[in-house]
C-alpha cells in the first residue's frame, strides 16, 4: 500500500478546492484512505493519519472513528506519537463517552514518566477533559507533581488541580498542603497558575477563603515587586511587567478583601499605587486599571480610594476605544448607588456619551443618566434627555420615555413643569410610551386642580398639530371632555388664553372619531368626551346626533357606548348631569375594580383577583401537576382556585342596571356532553373591567346514579388569566334533578379568541371516571 500523503500536502490540496462540494469530495476520499489504514493496523503512519483527521475535525467534518487510534498512540513509547494521541484525545473525546475511561491507566503511567514533557502532556489532557472518575483516580499523582521542584510541571499541575477541584470539590483539601509554598516561587508561570488555583479554592469554599486571607501581605508584596521592577524582556508587555499576573492577583485580592476590614486595610496602599503608577496610553494598562477599580469597589476601601477609582472610570469615558467607554459606563452604573456624588462629577461626560454613534454605549449612557437624576439637577438632565428622546432611534424611545416619566414623577420641581415635561414626551414619542402612561397622566392632571385650564388648552393645541400620537390624543380627549367649559371660557392664567368656540371643539373630537389614525380605544375616549360635553356645552342637539350615529357602529365597544349614551338622553335625562359630572381627585393607591397588577415571569400582567375573597386554597400537588401534564406543559397558565362559591356581581354593573334592557346578551353554549354528563356555559361581562368574561358552568347528569367526587378543572393559554371559584357541590344529582354550578373568570386583555382545555373527574357507580376536552367554539361576544 502506498504511503499516505503528508498533512501539509493535504492542507494544500484542500485549499485548492473551489467549491464546498469539491472540498467534501476530497475529505471523503481521504477519510476512506485513513479508515483503510486503520483497519490494516498500520502502525507506521498512524500518527500521520490521526493528525490529518484532527485537521478535518477542525474544519467541521466527523472524525469520531479515530478515537481508538488516539488511545493506541497514547500507549506508544514514542513522544511524537504520544503528542498527537493526547491532542486527539483532547479534541475528539469528552467525559460523555465511555471510551475516555480506557486511557486512565495510560495517563497514570505517563504522570510518573521520567520525561517532564510526557508528564506535561498527561497533565494537559487530564486538565482538559478528565471526568470526575478520572480526577478521583489521578488526584494523588497531580498533588505529588504540585510539590515537585520542577517549575514546568508545577504550573501544569496547578492548572490540572483547578480542573480536579471543579469536577470533584471534596478533593480540595488534598491540595491545601501543596499550596503553602506556591507563592514563594520566582517563576511567573508557577505564580500565575498558583493564583488561579487559590482563586478557585476561595470561590468554592468559605473555609478556604478564611484560610487564605493570611496570604494577603504576600500577594501585596508580589504585586508591589511587579509594579516597581525594572524592564524585564521576558515578562514585558507594552512597557508593563507581566500584566496577566497583575490582573490575576487583583482578582484574588478582590475576593479576599470582600467583607473583611483587615484584609481591605492591608491592600489599600498597593491599590492606590497601582491606580496612580500604571501607564494608561496602552490597552494593557487600561486592563489593569479596570481590575483595580473593580477591586476597590468590591472591598471595604477608603472613601478617597473609591473617588480615585471613579475618576479612573471618568478618564475611561474620554478614551477613543469604544470598548473602554462601554466598560466605564457599565462600571459607573453599578457604583452610582453607593458613590452617587463622586459619579455626579462626571455627569457632563456621561451626557456627552448620549451622542455616541455606538448603540450599546448610547443605551448604557441613557441608563446612567437616569440614575444620576436628582432634585438638584432635574431641569438640566431632563433637558438633555428630552433632546436625546427627540433624536434617538426608535429602539430607545420606549425606555427613554418611561425613564422620563419616572424621574419627573419623583423629582418634579412644580406641577406645571411636570405636566409640560410629560406633554413634551407625548408629542415627540407618544406612540412608544407604556400603556399605563395614559391613566397615570390623567390622574396627575385630575389632582392638579389649579392647572386644569392650562392643561386642557395645551392639549387642545397639541391635538390641532398632530393626531397620530394615540396616547396624546387619548389624554387630550379625556381632558377636553372633563374641562371643555374651561377651554371655551378662556380662563387660563398660566399663559395667554385662546379663543375657541364650542363647535370648534366638537369638530376636533368628531374628526378623531372618523380619522383613520385613531385606534378603537381612542374613538371610545372621543365619544365619551363628546358625551361629557353635553353637560358642559349648550349644543346638546348636535351631540345627540353624533351619539345616535354610532349606535349602529361596526365596532361593538363603540356601539355599546353609543346605545347606552342614547338611553341616557331618552330615558334618564334627569340623571345625566350627575352621571357626567367631573371626576373627583383620584387616590393613587386605589385599586381599579377586580383587577390588580401582579408580577408574572418578570413582566407586569393583570390578574383577575377579587379582593373580597380570602386567600386561595392550594390544590393537592398531584392534581395540579396532572392538569399541567394534560394541558401540554408550558403553553398554559395555572388555575387559581378560591374557596368562596359566591356568584359574581351582575356583569352590567350599575350603569347597565340603570339602563335595564340595554345589556348585550351572550348566547349560552354546551361545552361537553358525554356519558350522561352535560356541561353548559353561560356568560356575563364583569364590571368595571370589560376585559373580564364571567363564565358560569352548569353540570347536569342524565344517568340513573349520582356522580360523586365531581371536579371540574380548566386552563387557558398564557395570554389569558383564569380564576376558578369553588363549585356549589361535588355531587351531580341523577336524572337531571339538579345541577352543579361553578364560576370561572377569564381576563382577556388582548381580545384574542378564547380557547380552553377542561378536565372532568367524577365517580359513577363506584368507578372513577376521568375525561379531557378542548373547547374552541366560544361565541364571539364572550371574548371580543
Describe the model.
By secondary structure, this protein is an alpha+beta fold. 54% of the residues lie in helices and 11% in strands. The radius of gyration is 38 Å and the shape is extended.
User: Mind telling me the C-alpha Rg?
Assistant: 38 Å
Beta-strand segment tally: 14
Low-confidence stretches: 589-663
Largest sheet report: 6 strands, mixed
Kindly estimate the percentage of residues that lie in beta strands according to DSSP.
5-15%
Look at the helices and sheets and give the structural class.
alpha+beta
Number of helices: 33
Q: Which strands sit side by side, in order, in the main sheet?
A: 6-11-12-9-8-7
Mean pLDDT: 83
The 3D shape can be described as extended
Rounded to the nearest angstrom, the distance between the terminal CA atoms is 79 Å
Percent in helix: 40-55%
Characteristic terms for this protein:
about 775 residues, alpha+beta, 6-stranded mixed sheet, 4-stranded antiparallel sheet, 14 strands, extended
Amino acid at each position: 500500500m502506498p504511503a499516505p500523503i503528508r498533512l501539509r500536502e493535504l492542507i494544500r490540496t484542500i485549499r485548492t478546492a473551489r467549491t464546498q462540494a469539491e472540498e467534501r469530495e476530497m475529505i471523503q476520499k481521504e477519510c476512506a484512505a485513513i479508515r483503510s489504514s486503520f483497519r490494516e493496523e498500520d502502525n507506521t503512519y498512524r500518527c500521520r493519519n490521526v493528525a490529518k483527521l484532527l485537521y478535518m475535525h477542525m474544519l467541521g467534518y466527523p472524525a469520531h472513528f479515530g478515537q481508538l487510534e488516539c488511545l493506541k498512540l497514547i500507549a506508544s513509547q514514542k513522544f511524537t506519537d504520544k503528542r498527537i494521541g493526547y491532542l486527539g484525545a483532547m479534541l475528539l473525546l469528552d467525559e460523555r463517552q465511555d471510551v475516555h475511561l480506557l486511557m486512565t491507566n495510560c495517563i497514570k503511567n505517563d504522570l510518573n514518566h521520567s520525561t517532564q514533557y510526557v508528564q506535561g502532556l498527561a497533565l494537559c489532557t487530564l486538565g482538559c477533559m478528565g471526568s470526575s472518575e478520572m480526577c478521583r483516580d489521578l488526584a494523588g499523582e497531580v498533588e505529588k507533581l504540585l510539590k515537585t521542584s520542577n517549575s514546568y510541571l508545577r504550573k501544569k499541575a496547578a492548572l490540572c488541580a483547578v480542573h480536579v477541584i471543579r469536577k470533584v470539590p471534596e478533593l480540595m483539601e488534598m491540595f491545601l498542603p501543596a499550596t503553602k509554598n506556591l507563592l514563594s516561587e520566582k517563576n511567573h508561570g508557577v505564580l500565575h497558575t498558583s493564583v488561579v488555583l487559590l482563586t478557585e479554592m476561595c470561590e468554592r469554599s468559605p473555609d478556604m477563603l478564611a484560610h487564605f486571607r493570611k496570604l494577603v501581605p504576600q500577594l501585596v508584596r508580589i504585586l508591589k515587586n511587579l509594579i516597581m521592577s525594572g524592564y524585564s524582556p521576558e515578562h514585558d508587555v507594552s512597557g508593563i511587567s507581566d500584566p496577566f499576573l497583575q490582573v490575576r492577583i487583583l482578582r484574588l485580592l478582590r475576593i479576599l478583601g470582600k467583607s473583611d476590614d483587615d484584609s481591605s486595610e492591608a491592600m489599600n496602599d498597593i491599590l492606590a499605587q497601582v491606580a496612580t503608577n500604571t501607564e494608561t496610553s496602552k490597552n494593557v494598562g487600561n486592563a489593569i486599571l479596570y481590575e483595580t477599580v473593580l477591586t476597590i469597589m468590591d472591598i471595604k476601601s477608603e472613601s478617597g480610594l473609591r473617588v480615585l477609582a471613579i475618576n479612573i472610570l471618568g478618564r475611561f469615558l474620554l478614551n477613543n476605544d469604544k470598548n473602554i467607554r462601554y466598560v466605564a459606563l457599565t462600571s459607573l452604573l453599578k457604583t452610582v448607588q453607593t458613590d452617587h456624588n463622586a459619579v455626579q462629577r462626571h455627569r457632563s461626560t456621561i451626557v456627552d456619551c448620549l451622542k455616541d454613534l455606538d448603540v450599546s454605549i448610547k443605551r448604557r449612557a441613557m441608563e446612567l443618566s437616569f440614575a444620576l437624576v436628582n432634585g438638584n439637577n432635574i431641569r438640566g438632565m431632563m433637558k438633555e434627555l428630552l433632546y436625546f428622546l427627540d433624536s434617538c432611534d426608535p429602539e430607545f424611545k420606549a425606555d427613554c420615555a418611561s425613564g422620563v416619566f419616572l424621574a419627573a414623577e419623583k423629582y418634579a420641581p412644580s406641577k406645571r413643569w411636570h405636566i409640560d415635561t410629560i406633554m413634551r414626551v407625548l408629542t415627540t414619542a407618544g406612540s412608544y410610551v407604556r400603556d399605563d402612561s395614559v391613566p397615570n397622566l390623567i390622574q396627575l392632571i385630575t389632582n392638579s386642580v389649579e392647572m386644569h385650564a392650562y392643561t386642557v388648552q395645551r392639549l387642545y393645541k397639541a391635538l390641532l398639530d398632530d393626531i397620530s400620537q394615540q396616547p396624546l390624543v387619548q389624554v387630550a380627549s379625556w381632558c377636553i371632555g372633563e374641562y371643555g367649559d374651561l377651554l371655551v371660557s378662556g380662563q387660563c392664567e398660566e399663559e395667554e388664553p385662546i379663543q375657541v368656540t364650542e363647535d370648534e371643539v366638537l369638530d376636533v373630537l368628531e374628526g378623531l372619531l372618523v380619522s383613520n389614525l385613531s385606534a378603537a380605544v381612542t374613538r371610545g375616549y372621543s365619544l365619551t368626551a363628546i358625551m361629557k360635553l353635553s353637560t358642559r356645552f349648550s349644543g346638546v342637539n348636535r351631540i345627540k346626533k353624533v351619539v345616535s350615529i354610532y349606535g349602529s357602529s361596526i365596532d361593538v365597544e363603540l356601539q355599546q357606548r353609543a346605545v347606552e349614551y342614547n338611553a341616557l338622553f331618552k330615558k334618564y335625562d334627569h340623571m345625566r348631569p350627575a352621571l357626567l359630572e367631573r371626576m373627583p381627585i383620584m387616590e393613587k393607591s386605589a385599586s381599579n375594580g377586580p383587577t390588580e397588577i401582579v408580577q408574572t415571569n418578570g413582566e407586569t400582567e393583570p390578574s383577575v383577583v377579587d379582593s373580597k375573597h380570602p386567600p386561595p386554597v392550594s390544590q393537592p400537588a398531584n392534581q395540579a401537576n396532572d392538569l399541567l401534564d394534560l394541558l401540554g406543559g408550558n403553553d398554559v397558565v395555572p388555575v387559581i382556585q378560591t374557596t368562596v362559591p359566591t356568584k359574581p356581581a351582575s356583569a352590567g354593573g350599575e350603569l347597565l342596571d340603570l339602563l335595564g334592557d340595554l345589556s348585550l346578551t351572550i348566547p349560552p353554549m354546551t361545552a361537553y356532553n358525554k356519558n350522561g354528563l352535560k356541561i353548559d356555559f353561560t356568560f356575563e361581562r364583569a364590571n368595571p373591567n370589560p376585559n373580564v368574561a364571567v363564565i358560569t358552568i352548569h353540570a347536569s347528569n342524565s344517568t340513573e346514579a349520582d356522580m360523586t367526587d365531581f371536579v371540574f378543572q380548566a386552563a387557558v393559554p398564557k395570554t389569558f388569566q383564569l380564576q376558578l371559584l369553588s363549585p356549589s357541590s361535588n355531587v351531580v344529582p341523577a336524572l337531571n334533578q339538579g345541577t352543579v354550578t361553578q364560576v370561572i373568570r377569564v381576563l382577556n386583555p388582548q381580545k384574542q379568541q378564547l380557547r380552553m382545555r377542561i378536565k372532568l373527574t367524577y365517580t359513577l357507580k363506584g368507578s372513577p371516571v376521568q375525561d379531557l376536552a378542548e373547547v374552541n367554539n366560544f361565541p364571539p361576544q364572550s371574548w371580543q
